[in-house]
Amino acid sequence: MRTTFALLLAASGVAQAGIDDCDGDSMRVLQPVAHAATDARGYWLDDTRIRWPGQPVGARYRLVASTSATLQVQRGAPVAGADHGYALSGSENVPDDVAARFRFVGAGATLALPQDARTELRDLLRGQAMLVHEDARGNVIDATYLQTPGALDALYAAAADDDRVPLGATPGDGTTWFRVWAPTAIDVSVCLYPDGASPAIESVPLAREERTGQWLNGNPRDLRGSYYTYLVDVFVPGVGIVRNRVTDPYSVSLTTDSRRSYIANLDDPALKPAGWDDAPRPPALASNTEMAIYELHVRDFSIGDASVPAAHRGKYLAFTDADSNGMRHLRALGEAGITDIHLLPVFDIATIPESDCVTPVIRQAKADSDSQQAAVMAVAAKDCFNWGYDPFHFNAPEGSYASDAADGAVRILELRAMVQALHAAGLRVGMDVVYNHTTASGQSPRSVLDRIVPGYYQRLDANGNVETSTCCDNTATEHPMMVRLMRDSVALWARDYRIDSFRFDLMGHQPRAAMIEVQRAANAAAGRYVPLVGEGWNFGEVANGARFPQAAQGMLNGSDIATFSDRARDALRGGGCCDSGVDLFAQQGLLNGLAYAPNASARGKATRRDLLHAADLARTGLAGTLREYRMMLADGRVAPLSALDYKGMQAGYASQPGEVVNYVENHDNPTLWDIHALKLPQDTSAVERARVQLLGAAFVAFSQGVPYFHAGMDVLRSKSLDRNSFDSGDWFNRLDWSYTDNGFGAGLPPPQDNGKDWDLLRPVLRNANAKPPPADIAWMRDTFRDLLRIRASSPLFHLRSADDVQRRLVFRNVGPKQNPLVVVGHLDGDGMPGAYREVLYLLNVSPDVQSLVLPEEAGKPYVLHPVQAADGAADARAKQARYTAKDGAFTVPGRTAVVFVVDTKKDTR
């Protein structure tokens, strides 16, 4: 039986979609709205209750609706143009789970829907509906749209729970199914195309499934290799009833610039590189702490590598060139101890042109010239580079990295070939994923989700505007269908591309519960454990659990999901992520001179107390940022790391070492080399700067937890002081696998994030000491690999449990009388399989030789670690370290990390 809504719609005069719509404008207004406002200050709590924050309880409220967008709402006058109207009564009883979900919504009128409205609700949500506060005469006092996720989730829970029915295009057995979740749509059709450019050959209506809100059609043909889009007729506040031609959120591939979705069965042999099914793959790791991650951008990896064939440079296929300089570099890292290559986003990116991208012409200029950046930024929107944190389609490979972006099959084949090549090199493949925001929302041509279900997938503020705290248009990963999209997407990458691990951008904006679901889905899809790590920053509209328990620092205990720790990072580097002005120089860290070697801007500003605190925070990182790990602090207390202050927060927050990622550099913010270019005294030589860089890597390598290294850190990578190179082109993001040039002095960095400090940066860029010669780059390359070999040589460097860390790791030289320039950690290997009964590492950040007497270490048969003692060891200075067994005295050369061991076989005590 047709509902009242359906009958009214049929009479509204809206023409049904046809094939002409498949090649027309991407948005067509079918019925303009009469009420231009778009605010949505009211909330559907579920399918029976509404809340309007700030409105008086006991007043007169009505829900009014129009199937043809004809509502006319004006204060002081009755509502006009409504074909539905329902009086609402007060509601006192809100279920606990609903109250918890909407705890961020302010107090106000909570209203119950009458029974007749409940019966029509599915249809009412497909039209224009507003909540009105009226006076006794029926005149409007106030009116607003309602945020719909609460009602949609209550009505269509089955859609979120049933993973057995795949969304998207599913070809097989002579039939191709199309399924799209569009519960508020008035009508949906699918447009079919023979290729990525030709006109449509057919428009096929989809049928609505009331239980799930999906629209579907089983086309009796195998349409693999074809392309499609959806035509979605839907009401959009402030616009009216529109017909959106839109790609599929579940697209597995696309044509050029994401104009059409590609139909594929990812099990099709034609979409697999030769040998894919039987290709060897590194085994899964037993614990997160077994990982050692190298973060790499696909284009950076090869665009400047002359040893790669020109057609492969900047592409997925560059990783298949086994004899290139870049692949030799990655293999050498793998042999030394790197386990995972984490790729910056390789899903479909909105901001990289996939055809006819521009390469800027950059003329040679002075190290502090602004001409280089001017050339880069003049074409930044059209060039071939972007970090890729602008998601368009979460499940499809990016086309700019493929040899032919127009062919949906090529993207799939070549991304798989890249993964296969890295696996063949013994390296696992991690993927950077960005589910916390979309590039655009609303009716933007780059909006996909919001053009299908307006107002559902994006997180809204109290006025119904999209939140943008993540930089872009935030997604509502607390809503079940957004959780399902994220869960399905990760499962696809793990299953169909053999991605071994994932890094989640701004994971703290996602619910802990959602991430637990994702972990289960990834493991099930891969048939093995899939490590998840992410940025657990706590900020924005979700901060401190305002909307849900977050996947943020300190909130993932017991989950085995790891967050990046800023505790040791900031202590070692100095300052914070967003410093500017004189603070770029004055905020020194433990590595670059805090209190002991002040630069001109820092003189007299730091004290011994600051230095002692930084040393304690560095030890926090070495101890895995564990909240319950106990040690003597600089003030003399023996306390857990949760009692140590970090910018008003607990320094220790993790329950297990596998829940923490340790790093001093990644793609964000200045590179470590550039940090030191700013903060070290300007007369520090290039040789000494390289040693400071190595110390930064050593703190990460020796830390309990997951070590994470930015590509190029091991070759002194510079971005010419650019603090945010996301769109700074190949010029500022260069990697040189010939080990000739580290990129420093490539000109002033682009003005967007750096321009206000140009006058301060100019003299730094002119400093010849900050431009390392090839010999220093090669030294860093080789000493970094030795660090990896040391870490890989003993399980003591990657303990799996907090109990083991507390039992086996103890810090020497601590408390108020310590020498804070030397951080010393002792690892006890008693009863643990491995070559070493004991390991003692000493990290001297001072430019000068330091001597310590450690009575606890007296009488032990310590020898220099075999890696550092070997004839071919890269760091000759480490061999100058001395140990006297009689009294436990150690002498450590300036700016040197040394490791002493007690060999299990030679220990005769």
Question: What does this protein look like?
Answer:
The protein is 23% helix and 22% strand. It is of the alpha+beta class and 909 residues long. A hairpin with a 2-residue loop joins strand 31 and strand 32 (649-650). Helix 7 (325-336) packs parallel to helix 21. It is globular, with a radius of gyration of 30 Å.
Which segments are poorly predicted (pLDDT under 50) over 5 or more consecutive residues?
none
Helix and strand composition category:
alpha+beta
Biggest beta-sheet profile: 8 strands, mixed
Helix content: 10-25%
Strand portion, in percent? 15-25%
Helix run count: 23
Q: List how many beta strands DSSP finds.
A: 42
Shape: globular
- Spatial strand arrangement across the major sheet: 8-7-4-5-6-3-2-9
Distance between the termini: 89 Å
Round the mean pLDDT to the nearest integer and report it: 96
Radius of gyration: 30 Å
